Amino acid sequence: MDFFHYRQSKLYAEDVAVEAIAAAVGTPVYIYSKATFLDHLRKIQKAYSRLDTMVCFSVKACGNIHILRFLAGAGSGFDVVSGGELYRAMQAGAGPETIVYAGVGKTDVEMTEALRAGIGYFNIESEAELENLIGLAGQAGCRTRAALRVNPDVDYRTHKYTATGRKQTKFGVDIERALKVFDTYGANPDVRLCAVHVHLGSGGKTIDPYVDAVKKILPVIAELRRRGHAIEALDLGGGYGADYVSDSVPSAEDYAAGLIPLLEGKGLRLILEPGKSICANAGILLMRVLYTKTGGGKKFVIVDAGMNDLIRPSLYQAFHFIWPVAPAERFVPDRRDENLSIPGTEVVDVVGPICEGADFLAKDRALPPLARGDLLAAFTAGAYGFTMASNYNARGRTPEVLADGDVFTVIRRRETYEDLVSLER
């Protein structure tokens, strides 16, 4: 569940009226709910408690160090994909042994930093990367553990940009090559190749692809062990869906029910790298209506948030439910749905101020009549919202605010014009 809810037709983040946040810090602004983060994390931890499981939150989904800090305090490890994300996790107090490092293009500097930090596992994407890591580990006098990322060639049935488990992607090695990689490099003393990593993509809506992937990978692990390789862990990556549309994805318990029977008794530590399933519903983007206009028979609602603040709709054609913070008709839908049709609404495009035709947050969306100054919330915006934001059109990035009970805290201030040019001075 999430802890954004309407009381007497006004939207609250936990026990804080979002209108109060807008009055204090302005708009647009990202607002997060601490209780929602922790609720989703604990549900995953509980669902897989029958196995030796390490849950590693994906930093790329939502990387504010204040958020990472309380997730670490709740027992989360972290999945990072860059030196900057490693730095963020370490600044948040993460234990390095709880960090796994993925990504196809790790630089020598990034790898050396991670080696010296003593991270838990490198997720290896190619033979060339593994050879380079072995050399760097020797130079640094460090030893580390690694998981080979294997593509099980499973159809994840998601957006083409976020399906990463097929042979044709840039990620990982084909399942047929995995045995050869282990046979060639498995005895290296500096980089202990002792785990298998699988990541199918992002935004899945069924458990079937995960079940299929595990069924394909377990025989590979059995053969590796038969050949003398000590395989201690299986990293199933992330990509577990989030409810952008109400009740549209399996729960943590649903995923676990399909996977645990396959993994029990296999002597494997399970590593999971959830991102949006923890943080998507933990955030909203709050924006204010600037103008309304009609053109060519279409009505536009122009708001002060744009594609530089939330690029997912224009990049992935992603859906975010949008609704007024204080609807005039005192009506709040009981579900979030792309095809919502309610008497008294009108079909509009919600667009931003960016000088691009692709700058939209919603198209052909049913909304109550809106006027200048009204507040709107884009829900399920906690994942890949702020982390993909930019300064396009020389716009300062939004502040980030954390609601915790009846208190809210600015955990990242709004960028100023001076911030935009400070590195150019």
Structure, described:
This protein is α/β, with parallel strands linked by helices and 425 residues long. It folds into two domains: 4-32 and 280-424, Lyase, Ornithine Decarboxylase, Chain A, domain 1, CATH 2.40.37; 34-277, Alanine racemase (TIM Barrel), CATH 3.20.20.10. It is built from twelve helices and 21 strands. The protein has helices at 18-25, 34-47, 65-73, 83-91, 108-117, 127-140, 175-185, 208-226, 252-263, 276-279, 312-316, 417-421, and strands at 4-7, 10-13, 16-17, 29-33, 53-58, 77-80, 99-101, 121-124, 144-151, 173-174, 191-197, 233-235, 269-272, 283-295, 298-303, 322-324, 346-351, 360-367, 375-378, 400-404, 407-412. The strands form three sheets. Strands 4, 14, 15, 16, 17, 18, 19, 20 and 21 form a nine-stranded mixed beta sheet that branches. It has an eight-stranded parallel beta barrel with strand order 5-6-7-8-9-11-12-13, surrounded by five helices. A three-stranded antiparallel beta sheet has the order 1-2-3. Strand 8 (121-124), helix 6 and strand 9 (144-151) form a beta-alpha-beta unit. The protein is globular, with a radius of gyration of 23 Å.
